[in-house]
Amino acid sequence: MSIIPNFFGRRSNVFDPFSLDVWDPFEDFPFSNNIRLLSEFRPNFPSETSALAQARIDWKETPTAHVFKADVPGLKKEELKVEVEDGRVLQISGERNREMEEKNDTWHRMERSSGKFMRRFRLPENAKVDEVKAAMEDGVLTVTVPKEEVKKPDVKAIDISG
């Protein structure tokens, strides 16, 4: 035990420069192992604070469409659903299942999130809900909702007499 703590942490893997563990001031206390065991206990149901439960989605409007981009790294297109419900509500949902534990496997860390997510967006009146398209590339789901063309009012010029 060092008298001066290393505030920058220590590496859990010396070959990985990004595996820095944060310094824990209570690490050498006699009760620290019990607290750590309690904090590492996680039931098998998904946490609402997991990265998957909080899927980040951008929504931008272009002159021709509403475009939604969702970061869904590690998910296959079969694990995602894109639906338009009554009332012009776009729903994007997905699910990642936890890997099954094998009898002889020993886990050292389980940091990848698993569980379900669902995000809903009320589409504006100018959205063509029958023409929605979805595509996936490099872990990004892109949903494109075309917009109805803005009808220009018919203008009739009136001659002024006099």
UniProtKB/TrEMBL annotation:
The entry's protein name is Alpha crystallin/Hsp20 domain
Source organism of the structure:
Macleaya cordata
Which family does this protein fall into?
Belongs to the small heat shock protein (HSP20) family.
**Domain SHSP, residue spans:** 48-162
Q: Which InterPro entries match?
A: A-crystallin/Hsp20_dom, HSP20-like_chaperone, Small_HSP
Q: Does the keyword Manganese apply?
A: no
Keywords for the protein's UniProt record, in alphabetical order? Stress response
